[in-house]
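ARCHIVE CARD
SHELF: 3
SLOT: left
DATA:
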Amino acid sequence: MLRLSVLAVGKLTDPALVDLTQRYLQRLQPHGTVKIIEVPHGKAATASANQLAEAQALQAKTPPGAVVVMLDERGQNVTTRTLADKLATWRDQGVRDVVFVIGGADGLDPTYRASAPWVWQLSALTFAHQWVRPLLLEQLYRVVTLWSGHPYHRD
Protein backbone atom coordinates (compact mmCIF):
# COMPACT_ATOMS: atom_id res chain seq x y z
CA MET A 1 0.00 0.00 0.00
CA LEU A 2 1.19 3.47 -0.89
CA ARG A 3 1.80 5.70 2.12
CA LEU A 4 1.24 9.39 1.52
CA SER A 5 2.73 12.17 3.61
CA VAL A 6 2.55 15.93 3.46
CA LEU A 7 5.65 17.71 4.67
CA ALA A 8 4.84 21.35 5.29
CA VAL A 9 6.64 24.38 6.62
CA GLY A 10 4.76 25.95 9.51
CA LYS A 11 1.58 25.24 11.39
CA LEU A 12 -1.84 26.15 10.08
CA THR A 13 -3.13 29.12 12.06
CA ASP A 14 -6.37 30.03 10.29
CA PRO A 15 -9.23 28.10 11.98
CA ALA A 16 -11.09 27.72 8.67
CA LEU A 17 -8.04 26.12 7.00
CA VAL A 18 -7.47 23.88 10.04
CA ASP A 19 -11.11 22.74 9.83
CA LEU A 20 -10.96 22.12 6.09
CA THR A 21 -7.70 20.20 6.44
CA GLN A 22 -9.20 18.02 9.17
CA ARG A 23 -12.30 17.33 7.07
CA TYR A 24 -10.19 16.08 4.16
CA LEU A 25 -8.01 13.99 6.47
CA GLN A 26 -11.21 12.35 7.79
CA ARG A 27 -12.45 11.71 4.25
CA LEU A 28 -9.10 10.14 3.36
CA GLN A 29 -8.98 7.90 6.45
CA PRO A 30 -11.03 4.99 5.00
CA HIS A 31 -8.62 4.89 2.03
CA GLY A 32 -5.46 4.88 4.15
CA THR A 33 -4.00 7.45 6.44
CA VAL A 34 -2.29 10.53 5.07
CA LYS A 35 0.27 11.81 7.52
CA ILE A 36 1.00 15.53 7.92
CA ILE A 37 4.44 16.47 9.20
CA GLU A 38 5.22 20.07 10.02
CA VAL A 39 8.59 21.75 10.36
CA PRO A 40 9.14 25.26 11.74
CA HIS A 41 9.53 28.35 9.60
CA GLY A 42 13.08 29.55 9.12
CA LYS A 43 14.03 32.49 11.33
CA ALA A 44 16.98 33.80 9.37
CA ALA A 45 17.44 37.36 8.16
CA THR A 46 17.17 36.50 4.45
CA ALA A 47 14.74 34.52 2.31
CA SER A 48 17.50 32.30 0.93
CA ALA A 49 18.75 31.43 4.42
CA ASN A 50 15.17 30.59 5.45
CA GLN A 51 14.76 28.40 2.39
CA LEU A 52 17.96 26.52 3.21
CA ALA A 53 17.03 26.01 6.88
CA GLU A 54 13.55 24.81 5.92
CA ALA A 55 14.95 22.47 3.25
CA GLN A 56 17.27 20.87 5.81
CA ALA A 57 14.37 20.40 8.24
CA LEU A 58 12.16 18.93 5.50
CA GLN A 59 14.91 16.55 4.33
CA ALA A 60 15.41 15.34 7.90
CA LYS A 61 11.73 14.36 8.08
CA THR A 62 11.61 12.58 4.71
CA PRO A 63 11.34 8.79 5.01
CA PRO A 64 14.29 6.94 3.44
CA GLY A 65 13.55 5.84 -0.12
CA ALA A 66 10.46 8.04 -0.46
CA VAL A 67 9.52 9.60 -3.77
CA VAL A 68 9.52 13.34 -3.10
CA VAL A 69 7.05 15.58 -4.92
CA MET A 70 7.71 19.29 -4.53
CA LEU A 71 4.78 21.67 -4.90
CA ASP A 72 6.07 24.75 -6.67
CA GLU A 73 4.82 27.31 -9.16
CA ARG A 74 7.58 26.25 -11.59
CA GLY A 75 6.38 22.65 -11.65
CA GLN A 76 4.36 20.59 -14.09
CA ASN A 77 0.64 21.37 -14.27
CA VAL A 78 -1.45 18.19 -14.56
CA THR A 79 -5.07 17.08 -14.39
CA THR A 80 -6.48 15.16 -11.47
CA ARG A 81 -6.69 12.04 -13.66
CA THR A 82 -2.99 12.40 -14.58
CA LEU A 83 -2.10 12.81 -10.90
CA ALA A 84 -4.03 9.64 -10.08
CA ASP A 85 -2.26 7.75 -12.87
CA LYS A 86 1.18 8.99 -11.77
CA LEU A 87 0.59 7.91 -8.17
CA ALA A 88 -0.85 4.58 -9.32
CA THR A 89 2.26 3.96 -11.43
CA TRP A 90 4.50 4.52 -8.42
CA ARG A 91 2.25 2.32 -6.27
CA ASP A 92 2.33 -0.45 -8.90
CA GLN A 93 6.14 -0.16 -9.14
CA GLY A 94 6.38 -0.94 -5.44
CA VAL A 95 7.03 2.56 -4.13
CA ARG A 96 6.09 2.57 -0.44
CA ASP A 97 6.21 6.28 0.40
CA VAL A 98 5.33 9.41 -1.54
CA VAL A 99 5.98 12.69 0.21
CA PHE A 100 4.45 15.98 -0.95
CA VAL A 101 6.52 18.98 0.12
CA ILE A 102 4.97 22.40 0.75
CA GLY A 103 7.54 25.12 1.31
CA GLY A 104 7.23 28.18 3.47
CA ALA A 105 6.33 31.75 2.61
CA ASP A 106 9.74 32.23 0.94
CA GLY A 107 9.30 29.17 -1.28
CA LEU A 108 11.57 26.16 -1.69
CA ASP A 109 15.35 26.23 -1.76
CA PRO A 110 16.32 25.93 -5.46
CA THR A 111 18.85 23.14 -4.89
CA TYR A 112 16.39 21.16 -2.77
CA ARG A 113 13.65 21.66 -5.38
CA ALA A 114 15.99 20.47 -8.14
CA SER A 115 16.64 17.23 -6.22
CA ALA A 116 13.01 16.09 -6.52
CA PRO A 117 12.00 13.54 -9.15
CA TRP A 118 8.83 15.54 -9.76
CA VAL A 119 7.93 19.18 -9.22
CA TRP A 120 4.18 19.73 -9.41
CA GLN A 121 2.41 23.01 -10.00
CA LEU A 122 -0.89 22.86 -8.14
CA SER A 123 -2.06 25.91 -10.09
CA ALA A 124 -0.69 28.75 -12.15
CA LEU A 125 -2.24 31.03 -9.54
CA THR A 126 -0.26 32.15 -6.51
CA PHE A 127 -1.60 30.90 -3.17
CA ALA A 128 -0.53 31.65 0.38
CA HIS A 129 1.46 28.56 1.38
CA GLN A 130 -1.07 27.70 4.11
CA TRP A 131 -3.86 27.38 1.53
CA VAL A 132 -1.91 24.71 -0.33
CA ARG A 133 -2.37 22.05 2.35
CA PRO A 134 -6.18 21.71 2.08
CA LEU A 135 -6.00 22.06 -1.72
CA LEU A 136 -3.49 19.21 -1.89
CA LEU A 137 -5.56 17.02 0.43
CA GLU A 138 -8.65 17.64 -1.69
CA GLN A 139 -6.75 16.42 -4.77
CA LEU A 140 -5.46 13.35 -2.91
CA TYR A 141 -9.04 12.60 -1.88
CA ARG A 142 -10.10 12.76 -5.53
CA VAL A 143 -7.25 10.41 -6.43
CA VAL A 144 -8.20 7.72 -3.91
CA THR A 145 -11.88 7.93 -4.84
CA LEU A 146 -10.92 7.45 -8.49
CA TRP A 147 -8.84 4.41 -7.48
CA SER A 148 -11.78 2.94 -5.59
CA GLY A 149 -14.06 3.21 -8.62
CA HIS A 150 -16.20 6.17 -7.64
CA PRO A 151 -17.57 8.03 -10.63
CA TYR A 152 -15.59 11.08 -11.58
CA HIS A 153 -17.69 14.08 -12.50
CA ARG A 154 -15.39 15.03 -15.38
CA ASP A 155 -15.77 11.71 -17.26
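SLOT: right
DATA:
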Amino acid sequence: MTDLPESDGLARRNHELSILNSIAEALNRSVQLDEALQTVLAQVAELLHLRTGWVWLRRESDAESYLAAAYNLPPALACNPAAMEGDCYCLETFEEGDLSGAANINVITCTRLRNLIDGTDGLRYHASIPLYAHGRKLGVFNVASVDWCRLSADDLRLLHTVGDLLSMAVERAQLFARSTAIGAVEERNRLARELHDTLAQGLAAVLLQLETADALLEGRAPVEKARQKIAQALAMTRANLDEARRSVLDLRAAPLEGRSLPEALQALADAPHPFAITLRLTGAAQPLPPRLEIGLYRIVQEALNNVRQHAAAGNVSIEYVATPDAITLSIEDDGVGFDPTQPRPNHYGLIGINERARLLGGAMTVQSAAGAGTRIQVVI
Protein backbone atom coordinates (compact mmCIF):
# COMPACT_ATOMS: atom_id res chain seq x y z
CA MET A 1 0.00 0.00 0.00
CA THR A 2 1.52 3.36 -1.04
CA ASP A 3 1.78 6.11 1.52
CA LEU A 4 -0.75 8.90 1.19
CA PRO A 5 0.51 12.48 0.90
CA GLU A 6 0.66 14.09 4.32
CA SER A 7 -2.31 16.36 3.62
CA ASP A 8 -4.44 13.42 2.40
CA GLY A 9 -3.44 11.33 5.39
CA LEU A 10 -4.33 14.14 7.78
CA ALA A 11 -7.70 14.63 6.08
CA ARG A 12 -8.45 10.90 6.37
CA ARG A 13 -7.50 10.83 10.04
CA ASN A 14 -9.73 13.85 10.71
CA HIS A 15 -12.57 12.14 8.87
CA GLU A 16 -12.08 8.96 10.91
CA LEU A 17 -12.01 10.91 14.16
CA SER A 18 -15.21 12.68 13.14
CA ILE A 19 -16.89 9.31 12.48
CA LEU A 20 -15.72 7.84 15.78
CA ASN A 21 -16.76 10.95 17.67
CA SER A 22 -20.28 10.80 16.18
CA ILE A 23 -20.60 7.12 17.08
CA ALA A 24 -19.29 7.68 20.63
CA GLU A 25 -21.79 10.49 21.16
CA ALA A 26 -24.63 8.26 19.94
CA LEU A 27 -23.59 5.48 22.31
CA ASN A 28 -23.32 7.85 25.26
CA ARG A 29 -26.86 9.11 24.84
CA SER A 30 -28.53 5.91 26.05
CA VAL A 31 -27.94 2.94 28.35
CA GLN A 32 -30.75 1.05 26.61
CA LEU A 33 -28.90 -1.49 24.47
CA ASP A 34 -31.39 -1.83 21.61
CA GLU A 35 -31.65 1.94 21.21
CA ALA A 36 -27.87 2.43 21.27
CA LEU A 37 -27.21 -0.35 18.75
CA GLN A 38 -29.89 0.89 16.36
CA THR A 39 -28.50 4.42 16.48
CA VAL A 40 -24.94 3.26 15.83
CA LEU A 41 -25.96 1.07 12.90
CA ALA A 42 -27.62 4.04 11.25
CA GLN A 43 -24.58 6.24 12.01
CA VAL A 44 -22.09 3.72 10.62
CA ALA A 45 -24.14 3.14 7.48
CA GLU A 46 -24.41 6.87 6.80
CA LEU A 47 -20.85 7.86 7.67
CA LEU A 48 -19.14 4.93 5.95
CA HIS A 49 -21.55 4.88 2.97
CA LEU A 50 -22.74 1.33 3.66
CA ARG A 51 -26.05 -0.22 2.66
CA THR A 52 -26.96 -2.25 5.71
CA GLY A 53 -25.77 -3.67 9.00
CA TRP A 54 -26.80 -5.91 11.86
CA VAL A 55 -25.53 -7.01 15.25
CA TRP A 56 -25.54 -10.48 16.78
CA LEU A 57 -25.15 -10.72 20.55
CA ARG A 58 -24.64 -13.69 22.83
CA ARG A 59 -27.27 -14.07 25.50
CA GLU A 60 -25.60 -13.93 28.90
CA SER A 61 -27.60 -16.79 30.40
CA ASP A 62 -26.64 -19.49 27.88
CA ALA A 63 -24.39 -17.86 25.20
CA GLU A 64 -27.03 -18.39 22.49
CA SER A 65 -26.75 -15.79 19.72
CA TYR A 66 -29.69 -13.58 18.77
CA LEU A 67 -30.27 -10.69 16.37
CA ALA A 68 -29.97 -7.64 18.61
CA ALA A 69 -30.27 -4.85 16.01
CA ALA A 70 -30.60 -4.45 12.26
CA TYR A 71 -30.56 -1.52 9.86
CA ASN A 72 -32.00 -1.59 6.35
CA LEU A 73 -31.94 -5.36 5.88
CA PRO A 74 -32.66 -6.53 2.31
CA PRO A 75 -36.27 -7.65 1.80
CA ALA A 76 -35.37 -11.35 1.70
CA LEU A 77 -34.24 -11.07 5.33
CA ALA A 78 -36.40 -8.20 6.61
CA CYS A 79 -39.66 -9.82 5.46
CA ASN A 80 -38.70 -13.26 6.73
CA PRO A 81 -37.56 -13.10 10.38
CA ALA A 82 -37.02 -16.85 10.42
CA ALA A 83 -34.17 -16.37 7.91
CA MET A 84 -32.26 -14.56 10.65
CA GLU A 85 -32.58 -17.49 13.05
CA GLY A 86 -29.94 -20.08 13.84
CA ASP A 87 -26.25 -20.32 13.06
CA CYS A 88 -24.44 -19.07 9.99
CA TYR A 89 -20.85 -19.01 8.79
CA CYS A 90 -19.88 -15.78 10.59
CA LEU A 91 -21.38 -16.90 13.92
CA GLU A 92 -19.75 -20.34 13.68
CA THR A 93 -16.42 -18.72 12.84
CA PHE A 94 -16.78 -16.33 15.76
CA GLU A 95 -17.63 -19.13 18.20
CA GLU A 96 -14.57 -21.07 17.01
CA GLY A 97 -12.43 -18.03 17.83
CA ASP A 98 -11.31 -17.21 14.30
CA LEU A 99 -12.67 -13.64 14.42
CA SER A 100 -10.28 -12.50 17.11
CA GLY A 101 -8.83 -9.21 15.93
CA ALA A 102 -8.59 -6.50 13.29
CA ALA A 103 -6.51 -8.68 10.97
CA ASN A 104 -9.39 -11.14 10.80
CA ILE A 105 -12.08 -8.57 10.00
CA ASN A 106 -12.70 -9.26 6.36
CA VAL A 107 -15.36 -9.60 3.73
CA ILE A 108 -17.06 -13.00 3.67
CA THR A 109 -19.93 -14.50 1.69
CA CYS A 110 -23.16 -14.25 3.66
CA THR A 111 -24.58 -17.75 3.99
CA ARG A 112 -28.06 -16.34 4.60
CA LEU A 113 -28.04 -14.54 1.22
CA ARG A 114 -25.88 -16.93 -0.80
CA ASN A 115 -28.63 -19.12 -2.21
CA LEU A 116 -31.25 -16.40 -2.64
CA ILE A 117 -32.10 -14.80 -5.98
CA ASP A 118 -34.81 -12.23 -5.25
CA GLY A 119 -35.00 -9.66 -2.49
CA THR A 120 -31.27 -9.39 -1.75
CA ASP A 121 -30.78 -5.86 -3.19
CA GLY A 122 -27.59 -7.14 -4.79
CA LEU A 123 -25.97 -7.97 -1.44
CA ARG A 124 -23.87 -11.10 -1.22
CA TYR A 125 -21.03 -10.22 1.15
CA HIS A 126 -20.52 -8.58 4.50
CA ALA A 127 -17.69 -7.66 6.83
CA SER A 128 -17.77 -9.26 10.28
CA ILE A 129 -16.33 -7.42 13.27
CA PRO A 130 -16.01 -9.42 16.51
CA LEU A 131 -17.17 -7.83 19.75
CA TYR A 132 -15.23 -8.65 22.93
CA ALA A 133 -15.05 -7.31 26.48
CA HIS A 134 -11.92 -8.27 28.45
CA GLY A 135 -11.61 -11.45 26.41
CA ARG A 136 -15.28 -12.34 26.86
CA LYS A 137 -17.20 -12.95 23.64
CA LEU A 138 -20.10 -10.53 23.19
CA GLY A 139 -21.16 -10.94 19.58
CA VAL A 140 -20.56 -9.98 15.96
CA PHE A 141 -21.12 -6.69 14.13
CA ASN A 142 -21.81 -7.11 10.39
CA VAL A 143 -21.86 -4.37 7.77
CA ALA A 144 -22.52 -4.77 4.06
CA SER A 145 -22.44 -2.94 0.76
CA VAL A 146 -23.09 -4.01 -2.84
CA ASP A 147 -19.69 -2.86 -4.13
CA TRP A 148 -17.28 -4.53 -1.72
CA CYS A 149 -13.62 -4.69 -2.61
CA ARG A 150 -10.67 -5.79 -0.50
CA LEU A 151 -10.54 -3.78 2.73
CA SER A 152 -7.50 -1.61 3.29
CA ALA A 153 -5.55 -1.59 6.54
CA ASP A 154 -7.11 1.78 7.35
CA ASP A 155 -10.62 0.38 6.78
CA LEU A 156 -9.88 -2.58 9.01
CA ARG A 157 -8.51 -0.37 11.77
CA LEU A 158 -11.52 1.94 11.65
CA LEU A 159 -14.02 -0.94 11.75
CA HIS A 160 -12.10 -2.53 14.61
CA THR A 161 -12.27 0.72 16.59
CA VAL A 162 -16.00 0.96 15.91
CA GLY A 163 -16.28 -2.61 17.18
CA ASP A 164 -14.41 -1.63 20.36
CA LEU A 165 -16.84 1.24 20.95
CA LEU A 166 -19.79 -1.10 20.42
CA SER A 167 -18.28 -3.66 22.79
CA MET A 168 -17.97 -1.05 25.53
CA ALA A 169 -21.57 0.03 24.96
CA VAL A 170 -22.81 -3.58 25.13
CA GLU A 171 -20.89 -4.24 28.32
CA ARG A 172 -22.18 -1.03 29.89
CA ALA A 173 -25.78 -1.90 28.97
CA GLN A 174 -25.40 -5.39 30.41
CA LEU A 175 -23.99 -3.99 33.65
CA PHE A 176 -26.91 -1.54 33.81
CA ALA A 177 -29.38 -4.40 33.28
CA ARG A 178 -27.74 -6.39 36.08
CA SER A 179 -27.91 -3.42 38.44
CA THR A 180 -31.60 -2.99 37.56
CA ALA A 181 -32.21 -6.66 38.36
CA ILE A 182 -30.40 -6.26 41.68
CA GLY A 183 -32.59 -3.25 42.40
CA ALA A 184 -35.69 -5.36 41.69
CA VAL A 185 -34.50 -7.99 44.19
CA GLU A 186 -33.90 -5.30 46.78
CA GLU A 187 -37.40 -3.92 46.16
CA ARG A 188 -38.92 -7.36 46.70
CA ASN A 189 -36.96 -7.69 49.94
CA ARG A 190 -38.30 -4.29 50.97
CA LEU A 191 -41.83 -5.48 50.28
CA ALA A 192 -41.22 -8.58 52.38
CA ARG A 193 -40.03 -6.44 55.29
CA GLU A 194 -43.03 -4.16 54.80
CA LEU A 195 -45.40 -7.11 54.92
CA HIS A 196 -43.86 -8.19 58.20
CA ASP A 197 -43.87 -4.70 59.70
CA THR A 198 -47.45 -3.83 58.70
CA LEU A 199 -49.57 -6.93 58.20
CA ALA A 200 -48.04 -8.97 61.01
CA GLN A 201 -48.42 -6.10 63.47
CA GLY A 202 -51.92 -5.37 62.19
CA LEU A 203 -53.03 -8.97 62.62
CA ALA A 204 -51.55 -9.01 66.13
CA ALA A 205 -53.65 -5.94 66.96
CA VAL A 206 -56.79 -7.63 65.57
CA LEU A 207 -56.07 -10.71 67.67
CA LEU A 208 -55.68 -8.56 70.78
CA GLN A 209 -59.09 -6.91 70.22
CA LEU A 210 -60.79 -10.28 69.69
CA GLU A 211 -59.17 -11.78 72.78
CA THR A 212 -60.34 -8.76 74.78
CA ALA A 213 -63.91 -9.20 73.47
CA ASP A 214 -63.80 -12.89 74.34
CA ALA A 215 -62.60 -12.08 77.87
CA LEU A 216 -65.39 -9.52 78.32
CA LEU A 217 -68.01 -12.07 77.25
CA GLU A 218 -66.50 -14.71 79.53
CA GLY A 219 -66.66 -12.25 82.44
CA ARG A 220 -70.30 -11.44 81.66
CA ALA A 221 -69.41 -7.80 81.02
CA PRO A 222 -71.98 -5.65 79.18
CA VAL A 223 -72.38 -6.93 75.62
CA GLU A 224 -71.91 -3.41 74.26
CA LYS A 225 -68.28 -3.34 75.46
CA ALA A 226 -67.55 -6.62 73.67
CA ARG A 227 -69.24 -5.30 70.52
CA GLN A 228 -66.98 -2.23 70.58
CA LYS A 229 -63.90 -4.47 70.64
CA ILE A 230 -65.29 -6.60 67.80
CA ALA A 231 -66.08 -3.44 65.77
CA GLN A 232 -62.49 -2.26 66.28
CA ALA A 233 -61.21 -5.69 65.19
CA LEU A 234 -63.38 -5.50 62.04
CA ALA A 235 -62.06 -2.03 61.17
CA MET A 236 -58.46 -3.21 61.66
CA THR A 237 -59.16 -6.29 59.51
CA ARG A 238 -60.50 -4.15 56.65
CA ALA A 239 -57.42 -1.91 56.83
CA ASN A 240 -55.13 -4.94 56.80
CA LEU A 241 -57.04 -6.42 53.86
CA ASP A 242 -56.49 -3.23 51.87
CA GLU A 243 -52.80 -3.34 52.75
CA ALA A 244 -52.58 -7.01 51.74
CA ARG A 245 -54.20 -6.27 48.37
CA ARG A 246 -51.76 -3.43 47.71
CA SER A 247 -48.79 -5.59 48.60
CA VAL A 248 -50.02 -8.49 46.48
CA LEU A 249 -50.37 -6.18 43.48
CA ASP A 250 -46.75 -5.13 43.97
CA LEU A 251 -45.62 -8.74 44.25
CA ARG A 252 -47.49 -9.89 41.13
CA ALA A 253 -44.55 -8.73 39.01
CA ALA A 254 -43.09 -12.28 38.81
CA PRO A 255 -45.68 -14.35 36.92
CA LEU A 256 -43.00 -15.98 34.73
CA GLU A 257 -41.39 -17.67 37.75
CA GLY A 258 -37.85 -17.04 36.60
CA ARG A 259 -38.44 -18.20 33.01
CA SER A 260 -38.02 -16.25 29.80
CA LEU A 261 -41.19 -15.30 27.94
CA PRO A 262 -40.80 -18.04 25.28
CA GLU A 263 -40.23 -20.63 28.02
CA ALA A 264 -43.29 -19.41 29.92
CA LEU A 265 -45.39 -19.47 26.73
CA GLN A 266 -44.26 -23.04 26.05
CA ALA A 267 -45.27 -24.08 29.57
CA LEU A 268 -48.62 -22.34 29.08
CA ALA A 269 -49.17 -24.17 25.79
CA ASP A 270 -48.23 -27.52 27.35
CA ALA A 271 -50.72 -27.11 30.22
CA PRO A 272 -54.12 -28.87 29.98
CA HIS A 273 -56.71 -26.96 27.91
CA PRO A 274 -60.08 -27.84 26.38
CA PHE A 275 -58.50 -27.15 22.97
CA ALA A 276 -55.24 -28.00 21.19
CA ILE A 277 -52.53 -25.29 21.14
CA THR A 278 -49.87 -24.84 18.48
CA LEU A 279 -47.01 -22.51 19.47
CA ARG A 280 -44.58 -21.03 16.95
CA LEU A 281 -41.60 -19.00 18.21
CA THR A 282 -39.31 -16.82 16.09
CA GLY A 283 -36.56 -14.78 17.72
CA ALA A 284 -37.00 -16.60 21.03
CA ALA A 285 -33.39 -15.96 22.02
CA GLN A 286 -33.84 -12.19 22.03
CA PRO A 287 -34.09 -10.98 25.65
CA LEU A 288 -36.82 -8.51 26.56
CA PRO A 289 -37.27 -6.13 29.49
CA PRO A 290 -39.18 -7.84 32.35
CA ARG A 291 -42.06 -5.36 32.07
CA LEU A 292 -42.56 -6.28 28.42
CA GLU A 293 -42.30 -10.03 29.04
CA ILE A 294 -44.86 -9.88 31.85
CA GLY A 295 -47.30 -7.76 29.83
CA LEU A 296 -47.15 -10.06 26.78
CA TYR A 297 -47.58 -13.15 28.96
CA ARG A 298 -50.67 -11.63 30.58
CA ILE A 299 -52.07 -10.87 27.11
CA VAL A 300 -51.73 -14.52 26.07
CA GLN A 301 -53.31 -15.66 29.34
CA GLU A 302 -56.28 -13.36 28.84
CA ALA A 303 -56.67 -14.35 25.19
CA LEU A 304 -56.73 -18.06 26.10
CA ASN A 305 -59.24 -17.33 28.84
CA ASN A 306 -61.44 -15.61 26.24
CA VAL A 307 -61.22 -18.65 23.97
CA ARG A 308 -62.09 -20.95 26.87
CA GLN A 309 -65.15 -18.93 27.89
CA HIS A 310 -66.60 -17.79 24.58
CA ALA A 311 -65.09 -19.38 21.47
CA ALA A 312 -66.00 -23.10 21.70
CA ALA A 313 -62.79 -23.67 19.73
CA GLY A 314 -61.00 -26.93 19.01
CA ASN A 315 -57.65 -25.42 18.02
CA VAL A 316 -55.65 -22.34 18.96
CA SER A 317 -52.41 -21.15 17.39
CA ILE A 318 -50.02 -18.75 19.15
CA GLU A 319 -47.30 -17.10 17.09
CA TYR A 320 -44.52 -15.04 18.69
CA VAL A 321 -42.08 -13.14 16.46
CA ALA A 322 -39.30 -11.01 17.98
CA THR A 323 -37.13 -8.82 15.76
CA PRO A 324 -35.00 -5.81 16.65
CA ASP A 325 -37.82 -3.57 15.39
CA ALA A 326 -40.94 -5.09 16.93
CA ILE A 327 -42.57 -7.87 18.89
CA THR A 328 -45.58 -9.42 17.17
CA LEU A 329 -47.88 -11.72 19.11
CA SER A 330 -50.84 -13.44 17.43
CA ILE A 331 -53.49 -15.70 18.98
CA GLU A 332 -55.91 -17.32 16.55
CA ASP A 333 -58.74 -19.80 17.19
CA ASP A 334 -61.19 -21.77 15.03
CA GLY A 335 -64.19 -21.05 17.26
CA VAL A 336 -67.58 -19.52 16.71
CA GLY A 337 -66.26 -15.98 16.15
CA PHE A 338 -68.25 -12.77 16.55
CA ASP A 339 -68.92 -9.40 14.96
CA PRO A 340 -66.23 -6.99 16.27
CA THR A 341 -68.36 -3.99 15.28
CA GLN A 342 -71.15 -4.91 17.70
CA PRO A 343 -70.98 -4.06 21.44
CA ARG A 344 -70.53 -7.02 23.78
CA PRO A 345 -71.77 -6.18 27.29
CA ASN A 346 -69.96 -7.84 30.19
CA HIS A 347 -67.11 -9.03 27.94
CA TYR A 348 -63.99 -7.31 29.26
CA GLY A 349 -61.22 -9.60 28.00
CA LEU A 350 -60.53 -7.75 24.75
CA ILE A 351 -60.72 -4.42 26.57
CA GLY A 352 -58.06 -5.64 29.01
CA ILE A 353 -55.82 -6.91 26.20
CA ASN A 354 -56.13 -3.61 24.36
CA GLU A 355 -55.27 -1.64 27.48
CA ARG A 356 -52.22 -3.81 28.18
CA ALA A 357 -51.02 -3.41 24.59
CA ARG A 358 -51.33 0.38 24.82
CA LEU A 359 -49.51 0.47 28.16
CA LEU A 360 -46.66 -1.46 26.55
CA GLY A 361 -46.47 1.09 23.74
CA GLY A 362 -48.16 -1.07 21.11
CA ALA A 363 -51.51 -1.73 19.50
CA MET A 364 -54.04 -4.54 19.21
CA THR A 365 -56.07 -5.56 16.17
CA VAL A 366 -58.95 -8.07 16.10
CA GLN A 367 -60.21 -10.01 13.08
CA SER A 368 -63.35 -12.12 13.50
CA ALA A 369 -66.70 -13.01 11.99
CA ALA A 370 -69.55 -15.27 12.98
CA GLY A 371 -68.50 -18.88 12.41
CA ALA A 372 -65.02 -17.88 11.22
CA GLY A 373 -62.96 -17.87 14.41
CA THR A 374 -61.01 -14.98 15.89
CA ARG A 375 -57.49 -13.64 15.41
CA ILE A 376 -55.96 -11.21 17.92
CA GLN A 377 -52.66 -9.57 17.04
CA VAL A 378 -50.59 -7.32 19.28
CA VAL A 379 -47.60 -5.43 17.90
CA ILE A 380 -45.17 -3.70 20.25
